[in-house]
Amino acid sequence: MKLQLEMAGGLRTIELERGEDPHQYRATVDGLEVAVEAHLLRPGVLSLIIDNRAYRAVLEDHAEEPTVHLGGQRHTYRIADPRSLKGRRAHAQGSDGPRPIKASMPGRVVRVLAQRGDTVEANQGVVVIEAMKMQNELKSPKAGVVAEVRVVAGGTVAAGDVLAVVE
Amino acid sequence: MKLQLEMAGGLRTIELERGEDPHQYRATVDGLEVAVEAHLLRPGVLSLIIDNRAYRAVLEDHAEEPTVHLGGQRHTYRIADPRSLKGRRAHAQGSDGPRPIKASMPGRVVRVLAQRGDTVEANQGVVVIEAMKMQNELKSPKAGVVAEVRVVAGGTVAAGDVLAVVE
Amino acid sequence: MFQKILIANRGEIALRIERACRELGIATVAVYSDADRAALHVLEADEAFRLGPAPAAESYLRGDLILDIARQTGAQAIHPGYGFLSENAGFAEACEKAGIKFIGPTSQAMRILGSKTSARQAADRAAMPRTPGSTRGLESIEEAYAVAEEIRYPVMLKAAAGGGGKGMRAVMRKEDLKGAFESAQSEAERAFGSSEVYLEKLIEQPRHIEIQLLADEHGNCVYLGERECSVQRRHQKVIEEAPSAVVGPALRQRMGEAAVRLAQAAGYTNAGTVEFLLDSEQNFYFLEVNTRLQVEHPVTELVTGLDLVHLQLHIAAGEPLPFTQQEVQLRGHAIECRVYAEDPDNGFFPSPGRITRLLQPGGPGIREDSGIYEGWVVPMDYDPMLSKLIAYAPTRELAIARLLRAIDEYVVGGIRTNLGLFRRILNDAGFRNAEIDTGYLDRLLSQATAAEEGNSEDVAALAAAIFGHHRATPTLAPIQPPESGWKHIARREGLRG
Amino acid sequence: MFQKILIANRGEIALRIERACRELGIATVAVYSDADRAALHVLEADEAFRLGPAPAAESYLRGDLILDIARQTGAQAIHPGYGFLSENAGFAEACEKAGIKFIGPTSQAMRILGSKTSARQAADRAAMPRTPGSTRGLESIEEAYAVAEEIRYPVMLKAAAGGGGKGMRAVMRKEDLKGAFESAQSEAERAFGSSEVYLEKLIEQPRHIEIQLLADEHGNCVYLGERECSVQRRHQKVIEEAPSAVVGPALRQRMGEAAVRLAQAAGYTNAGTVEFLLDSEQNFYFLEVNTRLQVEHPVTELVTGLDLVHLQLHIAAGEPLPFTQQEVQLRGHAIECRVYAEDPDNGFFPSPGRITRLLQPGGPGIREDSGIYEGWVVPMDYDPMLSKLIAYAPTRELAIARLLRAIDEYVVGGIRTNLGLFRRILNDAGFRNAEIDTGYLDRLLSQATAAEEGNSEDVAALAAAIFGHHRATPTLAPIQPPESGWKHIARREGLRG
Fold it and tell me: Which of C339, C349, C356, C380 to mutate to test the interface with A (most CBs of A within 10 A)?
């Protein structure tokens, strides 16, 4: 199995081959060979031994941001399918075209600060969401015109919902 | 859904029908009607509310002896398929015919105390198993003749393994 | 002692009170909103009653419903926990009229000490040092100018009914007073239904020190040492500890005795806390009284060895305090972290949602008071506190080390938490040297974070790949469900759920 | 202080030592047998080395391998925990020769106090009361008859190298002495490789009281109060508590000072325990010395507020004790239950196997020292202890109530445990009145159990049906695995594991 992971420190290429002992792997990380012994203690919890160093790795199941907790640090990653990687990156980084404003958490819409057709600056507040007794202003990712507002004051939103689109 | 459970206090007949709210059940226990609200908090852990009484029920996954822990008590049960119930009961209670001696726990065979063809009394020790630094003698369930010994000293056994058969 | 009580709260504090009741043989009645049906405080209660929809105004603040349930179940007393109805004198009075014991002070004592202005008047009567300033609500901007002139800028505007930093404004110069006065009034009106604000001298770089009190209904009142809660963000406590690194026996006794005087003058009973500011010259100034059990009560429990909820119940049942002031022994050091569902890397945005993974810390000296479990969906409707992680050790240095060890063991997945922030604070030289005041955390947060060592990313990448491998090709034998004929029966019955 | 140590043990004690090391900034090297690769003490270590197959003789007792690993990793010290190599003077001596600090007494002190006969001689030199009887191994049955005649029946035969009840025989009459002598000798030979047995007067219905000692390498030695461990089954401790309900300050001081005298006379260092029998007239008799940390050390930690493993590490690093005898403060009451994988309803048969369900207790005053998790397979190769559940509270009565509350929260599924036995003991009037001696538990177990209230079986049946319903027709949204393309990649790679 060979795969690429987008991580904070850049792209990592991992090759993984299971040995005869099902807990033993021969692996390469960016071409560097390592022998890994891995036991899945329970779902999401791995005990790794690499060169007699012991590690506890905990997988945070999260559709948007799968994350491995290791030694008190969070490592969020994304599986890069080699065939689609370039396209996705280009898409994510472009500032042209319509850009959504997404809810970063579930909550209730308290106020909508801009209407369809309004001109907004980058980082101008567009929608105010309340959750857990705190209000949070969600801001425009770019300067442009509000092309769409999908929520109304009083409504409920889920994390990841598109609240508005700025062109 | 209607089913019968063999429990310590006898046979219980449960009928269960889920309401419109998926957490609400109409149920009867031995014909007595009850309304139950049940939330599965995580696998094996139920929060029940019956007439505003709150209960924590924990299921012990165990192939041989499924058990519900409730208020500090263990309730072991067996699903009784009405069609096969009578046969099974009769079988379990008979003292005629061959009876197995099963390992009640995994362990190592320390000694075999009776050989094939030996006559044994009821409760006479037949095999000694060691686990966790303790030795335990497994006894004949009835008086009879040892028809079969399936283990040898030094071997390893799993819980439920048949060690010997007495006829 | 009571046979049965109702717990008018949710989350970790409801569970903590249930545990105390179980230990004392008292049956418990839980209440819950629709957002909390699957909460642990419902699971662990003896009885449970639905209050209403998720919003607190339609559930946990419905004193009328809660009293009805108490009557219906025969509960002899109501424990309000903290927040919600706990400092609502009207509710306390309704309990008194219904003949159901409110586990806290009388409504009368709560009225005297619950309003900040009225409490300042009581402090004067008890000859207790307080910040210079007014002891009544300001009636006009002119009165505000006059008071500020007298006590000198900088000053603080505060809501008399306030809490949590709402209706509070620091004013450095005369020019800013009018605008601050008006906005504080309107914020106080919105938050508390009362626009009453008053002025006091702003103490610069104060420490927040508070005294835990217990008073029985026979005139006995003791102080259980102090807690230091100077690590705050936006006037909200983040870390609390006992004892304070800067409070010695003499100062402790002076503050404790002042707090006891105030409580006795007001006819206070049950558990309560008197909050003070302490300046750099060790002068202390009365701030306010919290007329209830506090979030941070465990640090006092750990250094005194007492159980404050047990004692609240005994006091409410009319029993005398079982010890005297001289018998209170303080030993060791305790620190508490308030673990929140929020994202410190992203403006402290709240982070409700499903906890997909949970590993909880344990072992020597670690106490976790929590109401969460793996699979629980943290509702968006309430305070974002997930749990309180508390370490006890012989010294402050060891309590910090122990807390860091426990934070390393603690994993919460699926939502964001402020655990990383605690790691940063507990490793900060300023905190370790106890150089803290109420502005400490804001200063720390304004500094850039040091880059973390990044060599573990290789291992994390490997782990991610192996997790994926397991998911794609499960080879470990899963735990076998009982072969109990369920599927067979379900098929036969044509069951569809 | 050490930078790195090796922990030559497994299970809860290995994890407990790792936590202490993490708190003190010491790196840890774990060792494990094939049965323990998936154990928590491996997961939480910094480094981990395989020793060999499951049997202890091929793994945890391989002192040679363990010393090699210590050398190879640069570990400066070895903590032996309890059991395994912890009282092996030969191993301690090998560590000394290798220049690796053995965290415990010197091999010389261990030799003096580790043998029961030699320890009895040391007790005489320290003018410490002991049971009447021999202080050397019996050389013949004639000598046995003579000693028994002198001290009068009933007498106890004991193995000099003994522990855990092996090689021990109570002899009531002269007629039984010869058979008991021979069987005790051969049992001792088999268990300890030494047939040395001696005779002492049998104390009737004694309480087991022990004194915890700490001695540094600069001549300072303190006692940290007593523990009562009278609740035993077959000479194995089941419940331990501190303080003892029958030991007052004067007796505590006499026993403590006697224990300190013995330790100092033997040149003892680090943590150790002097065990005594206490008769109904409050006479105490020296029993033996445990030259190591004990299973039940947490009850002493809770009532003293100290961390014994931290202190062991500081002492082994050559530091002086950081407090004097006068500074030791005892406060409150602690009780520990040893939770075993065994079936009290079925002759206490061991019950190894997979833990299919685990709910662990928590909250105020509860400490659980464990090395288990849901899904862990308890190996058949070692001691059946799963965890130690410890409650701390202001009084003995409250500690019992708290422990019962925690036991109600505790669920272990898949294997049998003795949790129900603790429920029975803690509810027993004899235990609650502290009317306990080393025969207490056997007497309790010989009584029929009261029938349990059975009205919860209806609810259990309903719960079983609903569990089955969920299994047959899963309708609750399971936690979604990340849609991270794993399956796609696995398919594309033709991965088969």
Answer: C380
Chain D closest CA to C246's CA: distance in Å?
22
State how far residue B35 is from chain D, nearest Cα, in angstroms: 11
> Which of D377, D424, D425, D467 would you mutate first to test chain B, the one with the most B CBs within 10 A?
D467
Angle, CA C38 vertex, CA C35 and CA C44 arms, to 5°: 125
A2-86: CATH topology: Glycoprotein, Type 4 Pilin (3.30.700)
**Residue B59, number of CB atoms within 10 A of its CB:** 27
Q: Each residue's pLDDT tens digit in chain D (497 positions)?
A: 999 999 999 999 999 999 999 999 999 999 999 999 999 999 999 999 999 999 999 999 999 999 999 999 999 999 999 999 999 999 999 999 999 999 999 999 999 998 899 999 999 999 999 999 999 999 999 999 999 999 999 999 999 987 767 889 999 999 999 999 999 999 888 888 889 999 999 998 999 999 999 999 999 999 999 999 999 998 899 999 999 999 999 999 999 999 999 999 999 999 999 999 999 999 999 999 999 999 999 999 999 999 999 999 999 999 999 999 999 999 999 999 999 999 998 889 889 999 999 999 999 999 999 999 999 999 999 999 999 999 999 999 999 999 999 999 999 999 999 999 999 999 999 999 999 999 999 999 999 876 655 568 999 999 999 998 887 765 444 433 333 444 444 344 443 33
Give alpha helix (H) positions in D58-173.
63-73, 89-98, 107-114, 116-125, 141-151
Peptide bond into D482 cis (omega under 30): no
Residues of chain C contacting residue D488, judged by C-beta atoms under 8 Å apart:
none
The catalytic residue among D292, D367, D402, D416 is D292
Which chain D positions have a beta carbon within 8 Å of A159's beta carbon?
Answer: none
What distance in Å separates residue B53's CA from the closest CA in chain D?
11
A134 close to C (CB below 8 A): yes
Cis geometry, peptide bond prior to residue D154 (ω within 30 degrees of 0): yes
So what's the ipTM on this one?
Answer: 0.88
Provide the residue ranges of all domains of chain A, joining segments of one domain with +: 2-86, 97-166
- Does CATH place domain A97-166 in 2.40.50.100? yes
Query: Is D420 near chain B, with CB under 8 Å?
Result: yes
Instruction: Write the single-letter amino acid at D460.
Output: A
Domains of chain C: 4-103 (3.40.50.20), 141-201 (3.30.1490.20), 207-449 (3.30.470.20)
Sheet containing strand C366-370, strands side by side: C284-290, C270-278, C207-215, C221-233, C236-242, C333-340, C385-393, C366-370
Picking from B1, B18, B22, the nearest residue to C490 by CB comes out as: B1
